[in-house]
TrEMBL record:
NCBIfam families: SoxR (TIGR01950). The keyword Ribosomal protein does not apply. Residues 10-78 form the HTH merR-type domain. It comes from the Bacteria. The lineage of its organism: Bacteria, Bacillati, Actinomycetota, Actinomycetes, Kitasatosporales. Pfam families: MerR_1. This is Redox-sensitive transcriptional activator SoxR. SMART domains: HTH_MERR. Keywords: 2Fe-2S, DNA-binding, Iron, Iron-sulfur, Metal-binding.
Amino acid sequence: MTQLTWKTHELTVGDLAQRSGVPASALRFYEREGLIHSRRTSGNQRRYTRDTLRRVAFVRSSQRVGIPLARIREVLGLFPEDHVLTKEDWARISECWHADLNERIEQLENLRDHLTDCIGCGCLSIDKCALANPYDRLGEQGAGARRLLKSSC
């Protein structure tokens, strides 16, 4: 594969995949989802700016902590497509995650502390499940499966 230098202003999808460690298929998916953007050459090949590496790293890190792609897209959508994100921008984005991450931490701590009671539960809507359905709140909404996690922010 082509050796990239600091002077390289644009990356091919293969270059971006190699540098980020993310498969080219995932990068194309991210682009379809509006998480990253490219320009097309006259031969219809994708070209990414170097700052796309940071966006890809941000997407992967956010996914690792359980943030849905829709939320990631929403936050990245606060900035123009061609805007190179600054340190201040990244700080602003991270503020959006605080409440979300604190909620996830609380859910994980509850899972850890009550896992023994939940093994084998399955339905997650019975009145005994203090973790997923305290006080049988979901039963008040009728029969059938209910959402375990709610999106916020």
